[in-house]
């Protein structure tokens, strides 16, 4: 059974929150972020303001997948992680 867009947003926020709180993560989490964002970008229930945040999360996940220093990448995006989650909370 596929996840609803609300379930996908919740999962996305959970992963971003974990990155923000723990200051670490895994490549598989970045890959999961990418899959979630791709799915949400094509969902008609998602408004344009969220899609702009999703694009930023997509870029973050892409950079995270291919960096040799994932934890440094996460640490350097601490403020962004918090802002993205806040923006998604406002819009859902």
From TrEMBL:
This is YtzH-like family protein. It comes from the Bacteria. InterPro entries: YtzH.
């Amino acid at each position: 059974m596929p996840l609803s867009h609300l379930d996908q947003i919740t999962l996305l926020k959970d992963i971003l929150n974990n990155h923000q709180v723990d200051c670490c993560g895994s490549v598989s989490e970045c890959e999961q972020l990418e899959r979630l964002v791709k799915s949400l970008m094509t969902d008609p229930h998602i408004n344009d303001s969220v899609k702009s945040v999703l694009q930023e999360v997509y870029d973050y996940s892409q950079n995270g997948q291919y960096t040799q220093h994932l934890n440094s990448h996460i640490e350097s995006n601490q403020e962004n992680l918090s802002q993205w989650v806040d923006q998604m909370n406002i819009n859902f």
